[in-house]
Write a structure and sequence with these properties.
- There is one protein chain.
- The protein is α+β, with helices and mostly antiparallel strands.
- It has two domains: about 5-155, Four Helix Bundle (Hemerythrin (Met), subunit A) (Up-down Bundle); about 165-443, paralog of FGE (formylglycine-generating enzyme), CATH 3.90.1580.10.
- The protein contains nine helices and 14 strands.
- The strands form five sheets. A four-stranded mixed sheet has the order 12-11-10-13. It has a three-stranded antiparallel sheet with strand order 1-4-14, covered by helices on one side. A three-stranded antiparallel sheet has the order 5-6-7, with no helix packed on it.
- A hairpin with a 4-residue loop joins strand 8 and strand 9 (about 320).
- Helix 1 runs parallel beside helix 5.
- The longest helix is centred in the first third of the chain and has 30 residues, at about 5-30.
- The protein is globular.
- The termini are far apart.
- The protein binds fe (ii) ion (FE2).
- Fe (ii) ion (FE2) binds near residues 56, 60, 85, 142 and 146.
- Keywords: Iron, Metal-binding, Monooxygenase, Oxidoreductase.
- Pathway: Amino-acid biosynthesis; ergothioneine biosynthesis.
- It catalyses: gamma-L-glutamyl-L-cysteine + hercynine + O2 = gamma-L-glutamyl-hercynylcysteine S-oxide + H2O.
Length: about 450
């Protein structure tokens, strides 16, 4: 090994250690914010008790990093089944003999101590699982993804607010929401070079995308309110068949966490009820609501390929960027990520985060529903296990792109793909509109 690559390996280890520490700080903050009772309680049958998420984070870390990468003895083999997400649906998890909050905290600490030892001593080469510290990166992303889920649990929790964060930045000047034409042509979708990209983001491949028009900003509360007040939820013509069936069954009337107050609407954000901020992206809508709104507005949702092209393609160089703004990692000037602010930012707040086409706030703020199902890219290879992505491929899930204010930069990239059931509303999901161009726009 050359001195140069030793230096690179040390830098990689430092980066991993920093990211692990950052993720753990967030898990700790989210679990320390509530008392023991709130940690073991199920706040919604859609969610696990917070203490299950925390121990599951530790258990996955043990399985992959302590046992597999490190080849060490198990810490707690006896609890593997209890914290296997495939074995127990969320609704059943509170009935399991879960580790108590005290046991959970000591378990995750013990695992982490061993992981730091493994990190210091394992060569980060020779095995695909450890190349570029992939397994460590996967575990960092896993913890951050659960942190977003835990934040969603906090949103479902009742009681006085316990989470606090500063407001996101305000738009620096007047904001005009406009449509942007993306011309027809091929672009590179997905990645083969991003070291911590997951199997479903790979490999990079050329996709031809017909010309389309996309909104500069996500749909705002003001726009969505018009749909609500004009009776959109009672007009079947805007809804797909499945969407209308779900609207009826679940009695949908407004986004989740909107609260009716006479003839106006308020929203509940982590226990604080306040008037709607009209120029904030709408959040907590399901795919069916997004689809119905788009039909009502005379538009449609973008496909996943359209979304990624608008976000990453640079027409001047012909290449796809890592992020809308370029190849640099996200900073606070680019995007509302990482639970730094506990709400989406008003549209226009991140001019430095715009894509080459000028499409704004694609990363951060709200996950954006697309019209696409979850499919493998051509050349897909399941790694490191089928349960990561492959078992979810098919028409049951819709793709969400871009990450929310609750997602961390480590688990969010221009290529990052998220998927969920079309009925999900407790996630931090919004959308933006697209449409086919008119003939006069293509001349
Ligand atoms: Fe998990």
């Amino acid at each position: 090994m050359t001195a140069f690559s030793e230096l690179e390996t040390e830098k990689m280890r430092d980066r991993v250690a920093q990211q692990l520490a950052r993720s753990r700080a967030r898990s700790t903050a989210l679990t320390d914010a509530v008392d023991e009772h709130d940690l073991v309680r199920q706040h919604s049958k859609l969610m696990s008790p917070l203490v299950w998420d925390f121990a599951h984070i530790g258990n996955q870390e043990e399985l992959w990093l302590v046992r597999d990468v490190g080849g060490r003895e198990p810490v707690r083999e006896d609890i593997d089944n209890m914290y296997d997400a495939f074995q127990h649906p969320r609704a059943d998890r509170p009935a399991l003999p879960l580790l108590s909050p005290v046991e959970t905290r000591s378990y995750v600490r013990e695992v982490r101590d061993k992981v730091m030892d493994v990190l210091a001593s394992t060569p980060l080469e020779g095995r695909k699982l450890v190349e570029n510290a992939f397994a460590f990166g996967m575990i960092v992303q896993h913890e951050q993804q659960h942190n977003e889920t835990m934040l969603a649990t906090h949103q479902l929790r009742t009681g006085d607010p316990v989470l606090h964060a500063p407001l996101p930045p305000a738009p620096p000047g007047p904001v005009i929401n406009r449509e942007i034409l993306v011309p027809a042509g091929p672009f590179t979708m997905g990645t083969s070079v991003e070291p911590w990209a997951l199997d479903n983001e790979r490999p990079a491949h050329q996709v031809h995308v017909d010309a389309f028009v996309i909104d500069k900003y996500p749909v705002t509360n003001a726009m969505y309110l018009e749909f609500v007040t004009s009776g959109g939820y009672d007009q079947q013509q805007w809804w797909s068949e499945e969407g209308w069936a779900y609207r009826q069954k679940a009695n949908l009337a407004a986004p989740r966490f909107w609260v009716r107050d006479g003839d106006r609407w308020l929203r509940n954000g982590f226990g604080a009820v306040e008037p709607l901020v009209l120029d904030e992206p709408v959040v907590h809508v399901c795919f069916y609501e997004a689809e119905a709104f788009a039909a009502w507005a005379g538009k449609r949702l973008p496909t996943e390929a359209e979304w990624e092209k608008a976000a990453r393609f640079d027409p001047d160089t012909g290449r796809s960027r890592r992020y809308p703004w370029g190849d640099e990692d996200p900073g606070p000037e680019h995007a509302n990520l990482g639970q730094a602010h506990l709400r989406p930012a008003r549209i226009g707040a991140y001019p430095h985060g715009e894509s080459a086409f000028g499409v704004a706030q694609m990363i951060g703020d709200v996950w954006e529903w697309t019209s696409s199902d979850f499919h493998a890219y051509p050349g897909f290879v399941a790694f490191p296990y089928r349960e990561y992505s492959e078992v979810f491929f098919g028409p049951d899930y819709k793709m969400l792109r871009g990450g929310s204010f609750g997602a961390d930069a480590a688990a969010c990239r221009g290529t990052f793909r998220n998927w969920d059931y079309p009925i999900r509303r407790q996630i931090f999901s919004g959308f933006r509109l697209a449409r086919d161009p008119r003939p006069d726009e293509l001349r």
